[in-house]
Amino acid sequence: CGFARHVISLQNETLILFFVYRMAFNSSNSSLLISKFFPRGSPMVRFFAMFMCLLLSALSMGSVAAFADHPPEKLFRNFKAFGQLGETGQLGPFTVNVARFGNLPDGPATSGPNSDFTGFLDDKFNLASIVMKEGAIIHEAYNDTRKIDSNTPLLGMSMSKTAVAAAVGSLICAGKIAKIDDRAGAYSGSLAETVFADVTIRNLLQMNSGVSPLGRGDEKIFNWKARGVNKFHGQASVRDALRLYKSASRPQGETMNYHSTDTLALSVLVEEVSGMPASHYFHEKVYSAFGKSGYMHWTGDKSGTTVSFSDLSMTARDWAYFGAYLMGEMERQTCLGNFFRDGIENAVSTGRKNGSRYGYQSWVFDVHGTPALVMQGHGGQFIVLDQANRTLLLTISINEEYAAGNLFANIHKFAERLQ
Fold first, then answer.
1. Are 257 and 207 a contacting pair, CB within 8 Å?
2. Nearest to residue 370, comparing CAs of 330, 314, 319?
3. Are 297 and 85 in contact (CB under 8 A)?
4. Residues of the chain with CATH 3.40.710.10
5. pLDDT in tens, 27-46
6. Which of 7, 11, 321, 395 could form a disulfide with 49 if both were Cys (CB 3.0 to 4.6 A apart)?
7. C-alpha span between 35 and 272 (Å, rounded)
8. Out of 46-55, 61-70, 80-89, 192-201, least confident range
């Protein structure tokens, strides 16, 4: 147990154990008891620390282990708030800037569950699922109990990152970015004044800038600043969030670290190269090629700079059509398709047990033994592009712990069941 090891490693073990003991039992006599029975340096210190760790873990396991930091009902409330953001401009008590494109869909709701797939996709945590084969929808299901249908704008969470990558790829294909290995600071005056100045665009795409410390311990504050919520209400600024880092944590290209920072740097890059926020550029150059509902929205900071690490909302069908569009581009070997194919072929290690790698703001899993692009979002949002078999799987969820298996561990196996 990491906590126990931390306790053991501290010099003043007696005081730390006193603190733990007081938390667990709220006893005012704890200090005297521990000093008497567990003198400093005693082997019993180690036993007691481990015992307390196991006890506290057991007490908390039943209520939180399965849902980590996103209990299903909490995540569903977030989905509702983000889905309505284009109308309300509110996330709870916080006013948030949002770029809205088109009118809310109000056409006839579509649905067509396929019994071949409902056995593992029809889960209590699922909000929407779509299966496509050779460009056609062969399964489409929604959570009627939660009033989700084909017209509902759904938050893609971190699947939004792939939309930013598509915008970057489009700029490369338009000749506005010469090479993917150019420095970001050469194209963005804002980034040139930050620690991201010399980071290559490729390393930003692969979350390999080396800027953020390994792990995601500081990410919440960083995200709050970009969105302008909690203590930063009314002060949303993507650029100020990026300036929180004064120096890099390690050399770029050394170790991939999944974090919001590099994606927000890409948002600034897209904006300063294209002359418009990333949300606008994506809508104009990419969404227009696949979107059928005519509607999407995406949050921005107070200046309009897109909050790119999440927050893009589209209908489930449009999310699926986005994946199908990228698959088609790769099949036709267009410039944008080759951009994403390059990301798959040169994906970097993530060190994760599921064998995933990281391409250009998207994940890479082996499906039927062949590398496949996978968009992935917090809580169980996935789009799997099985190009070899011309199939696509979409899941929008409020928790990844499906009865058929954890989505993050098994999404590639789910995709293999579509045959």
1. yes
2. 330
3. yes
4. 72-106+135-416
5. 333 333 344 444 555 555 45
6. 7
7. 62
8. 61-70
Q: Is 376:158 a contact under the CB 8 Å cutoff?
A: yes
Both tokens assigned to 119: 């056995």
| Pairing state between β 126-133 and 136-142 | antiparallel
Q: What is the CATH number of domain 72-106+135-416?
A: 3.40.710.10
For 73-81, which contacts have Cβ atoms below 8 Å and span 24 or more sequence positions? 73/398, 75/379, 75/398, 75/399, 76/127, 76/146, 76/398, 78/155, 79/127, 79/154, 79/155, 79/398
**In angstroms, rounded to a whole number, what is the distance separating the alpha carbons of residues 259 and 318?**
26
Q: Please classify residue 148 by burial: count the beta carbons closer than 10 Å to its beta carbon, then call 0-12 exposed, 13-18 middle and 19+ buried.
A: buried
> Tell me, what amino acid is at 60?
S
CA distance 314 to 389: 26
Cα(211)–Cα(257) distance, integer angstroms: 9
CA 311 – CA 297 distance, rounded (Å): 8
Distance in angstroms (rounded) separating the CA atoms of residues 154 and 316 = 7
Q: What is the mean pLDDT of residues 109-133?
A: 97
Element (H, E) at 225: helix 219-227
Task: At 387, list the tokens.
Answer: 């190009």
Alpha helices in 206-283 (DSSP H): 219-227, 238-242, 260-274, 278-282
